[in-house]
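Incident log, entry 3
Record: LMBR1 domain containing 2b (659 residues)
Problem: checksum mismatch between cached and fresh output.
Input:
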Amino acid sequence: MCVSVRLSVCCLQTIYRQCEHDHKEQTSVPALVSPLSNHTIVNTTGAPTKSVRTLCHKPWSYIPDGIMPVFWRVVYWTSQCLTWLLLPFMQSYARSGGFSITGKIKTALIENAIYYGTYLLIFGSLLIYVAVHPELHLSWYELQTIGITAANTWGLFLLVLLLGYGLVEIPRSYWNASRHGHLLIKTYFKASKLMTEKADAEENLEDVMEEVRKVSESIKYNHPLRKYIDTILRKCPLDYQEKMGRNMDDYEDFDDKQNTYPTEKSLVKLHKQVIYAVQRHNRTRVQWQILLQQAIHLEDVAKNETSSTHQFVHSFPSSEPAGWFSRYIYTPTVEWYWECFLKRWFYRLLAIVLTLFSVVVVWSECTFFSTRPVLSLFAIFIQLAERDYNYLYIEMACFITIFFLCTCVYSTVFRIRVFNYYYLASHHQTDAYSLQFSGMLFCRLTPPLCLNFLGLIHMDSTISHQEKLQTAYTSIMGSMRVLSFIANGFYIYYPMLIVILCIATYFSLGTRCLNLLGFQQFMDDSEMTSDLIDEGKELIRREKRKKQRIEDGENRRREWKERYGNPREDYAARNRSSHEMKETSYSDTVSSSNSRQAKYSRSGSRAERDRIELLHDAEPLDFNADALTDDPPDAESGRHSGGRYLSMSSSRSRIFDDV
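Fresh output:
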C-alpha cells in the first residue's frame, strides 16, 4: 500500500511538471481566455484561433521539487543493501547453531561466500560487455546504471513468473471459496497431509531428543562442554527437560571413565537440529488445531444450509462470553444469512471483478510497447484523465492498479513452499529464515514492479520512447540505453511471457507435474486425492468425537458442582466443625466431672485428690469418631453432647463409686 501511494504521488508530480513545461513552450496570441474553458480561445475579432491550454492547477498532494528524488534514492538503495547484503547474512546467522556471536558470524560468512561470488560474476560480465564497446565510456554513473540494470533484470524475471500465477490463482481462489462443498473436501485433503506431516515432526523430535539425552548423560556437570548442553536443553520442550533432569546424575565425574565425548562442532550441529525440530513440531501442532476449527466450521455451514429456522447453530459453541457485537449486530440470524447465502455471492462477485482486472493487466502487458496507436488500457485511462487534469482520478487509478499488481505478486510469495526449507505459516508459526527470505523477495520485486507499472501507463521514456519528463523514480534508475539489448529487448518482450504462464496456471500444469513426480497435490480426478479426502474426513470425525467427550465431561463436572457443590471443600469444612465440636464437648465433660469430683471429695484424703488431678490431666486416647452425634444429651444413658469418649462412657463411670 505504501508503494501504491508513493508511486501515484510520483505520477502526479510528473504530470504537473509536464503540464507546466508544455505551457511555457506554447506560443501565446492576443486572446480572451475564458476561465471556464480548458481549450477554447477566442480573439478580439471573434475569429477562432489556435487552441491553447489554460494554466495548470497544482494537485493537492504536490510535493516540492527535489524531495521525491531524494526519497526514492534512499528507499531504493536501502532496499538493495537489505536484499543483496544484509538479509542473506542474517539468514545464515539465524539458522546457525553456534553458541556465541562470533561463531554465528563465522558460519554466516562461510555460507554466503558462494552467494556473494555469484553477484561479482554477474556484475563482472556486464562490466566486460560495456568495456569492449569503444563507444561506451565507463564512468561512475554508468557503473551505477549497470548495477541497477542487473538487479532489475533479475527482479523482472522473477516478477513475471509470480505475476502470471497470481493473476489466475487469486480470482480462482475466491471463486472456489464460494463453493462450500469444494472447500470442505479440500480441507479434508489438507487434514490428511497435515496429519502425516505432524506425525513426521513428532517422530523427528523424538529422535533428536533421544540424541540430546545421550549427549546430556555422557557430559557431566564439570565438563567444559556442559554449558553448551545446558543451552541446548533450554531449547527443548518442558516435558523433555523434566525427563532429562530426573535421569541426570551430576555426582559422577567425567574424568572417572574414559568415554568418547562429542566435539563442539557436533554440538553446534545438534543445537541446529533441536531448534528446527522444536519449531516444526510447534508449527504443525498449531496448524492442526486451526485446520480442525476450519473443518468443523465448514461442516456447520453445510448443516445449517438446510435449516428452516434461519439461525446459525455451532457444533461446539464458544466458552467465552459473547461481546456486544455478537449480541446486537452479528446475531445467529445475521450469521446464518452471511455464512449460508451472502458470503457465497460476495465471493463470486469479487472473483468476477478480479478476473476483469487480470484480463486488463494481461492485455496491457502484451501491448504497452505500442505508443502509436496506444493499446495499453492503463495508458489510455491515464491519458484521458491527463487531458482534463483530473488529479483525483489519476491518483485513484494509479493506486488501484499498483495495489492489484502488488497483491498478485506478493500473495504468490506467501503461497510458495520449498519443502520445509522455505514456508510462510500463519498465526506466528514462521521461522526466522523464511521471514527473512520473504523480505529479500519483496525488496527484489518492488523496484522492477514499479518500473513495469510506469511502462504500462507510458511514463517510462526508456520503454515508450517518448519525449517526456522523467518521473522522480526513473531519474534514479539511470538511462537504460547503456545496455540497449536489455532496454529495447528484454524489458519489452519478456513480459509477454505472462500469457503462457496464465494459461499454464489455468490448466494447473504445475500441479499436475508435481503430482506425477510423487508430490501429493489436490486434483479432482485423482484416485490418490479421493483416498486422502476419505482419510481426512475420518481424522476430522475422530477429533470431533474426542472434543465432544471432553466437552461432555466438563459439562458433567460443572453440573455436579452446581448441584452438590465442591465435595472436597464440604468434606474439609465438616472435618473442621466436628473437630471443634469434639474439643468443646471434651472440655465441657472434663469440667463437669471435675465439679462432681470436687463435690464428693472435699473430705477425702490427699492421695485421692492427686488421683483426681492425674485423671484430669490425662488425654483421652480412645476417642471413637464413629460415635459422633448431634443428638441432645440423654440423661438416662449418660451420653454427652458433641461426641463420646470411651473413658467417660457409662460403662466406666463407676470407677469413682468407692470415693
